[in-house]
Amino acid sequence: MTWQAAWEEGRTPWDAGKSAPVLHSILDTLPEGRALVPGAGSGYDVLALASEARSVVGLDLSPVAKMKFEEFAQGHPHRDRVDFVVGDAFDYSPAEPFNLVWDYTFLCALPPELRPQWLELIDRVLHPDGELAALIFPVKPDADPNEGPPYPMSPELVTKLVSPILVPISVSAVEQSNPGREGKEWLGRYRRK
């Protein structure tokens, strides 16, 4: 089954119907400028990040995801600060780097063998002074690491994965999550070495 087929058939269990509560709690502390949301889905986080001080690119493989985003974005006060791109994130080359990359449910959707490509993407698009903010999900310590998607994540796994290019600013458990995700989310914030 492909991601496009899942969107077309309405089988999108990863879509919580709104952005993550923790994102709203840290918005004022995230870098301003340009932000990228790979695997943007319906774009809830894209619009949450958009502001007068921050333009956002949402990137997703599915044209159906973009259609859902366009429906959701109607009337949003910062819609003009958002560009939603349909395409493969691994082929994406922005004209200029991003001050922020927000990852939530993109990394965990990738088979483990694609994680090096994910890191190459982060390295390619992130500004030298930029930040990766990753909502690490699903944190399931006893799960089979090769069974997914979503593939089980852990703060240790993500921190080790990014260690060739990034160092942690903070890594902590999330106290408030959308229903069904309680206790399965950690927030990792990382900057360039």
Helix amount, in percent? 25-40%
Instruction: Average the pLDDT over all residues and give the rounded result.
Output: 91
**What is the domain tally?**
1
Number of helices: 6
* CATH topology-level fold name: Rossmann fold
The CATH class name reads: Alpha Beta
At CATH's second level, what is the architecture?
3-Layer(aba) Sandwich
Along the chain, the helix and strand elements come as HHEHEHEEHEHEE
Q: What composes the largest sheet?
A: 7 strands, mixed
Radius of gyration: 15 Å
Low-confidence stretches: none
Distance between the first and last residues' Cα? 38 Å
Structure characterization notes:
- The mean pLDDT is 91.
- This protein has a single domain (3-8, 18-192), classed as Rossmann fold.
- The chain is globular.
- The chain has six helices and seven strands, in the order H-H-E-H-E-H-E-E-H-E-H-E-E.
- With 193 residues, the chain is of the alpha/beta class.
At a glance:
With 193 residues, the chain is α/β, with parallel strands linked by helices. Helices cover 25% and strands 26% of the residues.
Features:
193 residues, 7-stranded mixed beta sheet, 25% helix, 6 helices, alpha/beta, Rossmann fold
What is the topological layout?
Blueprint: H1 3-9, H2 21-26, E1 33-38, H3 44-49, E2 54-60, H4 63-73, E3 82-86, E4 98-104, H5 115-125, E5 126-136, H6 155-162, E6 166-173, E7 186-192
Parallel strand pairs: 1-2, 1-4, 2-3, 4-5
Antiparallel strand pairs: 5-7, 6-7
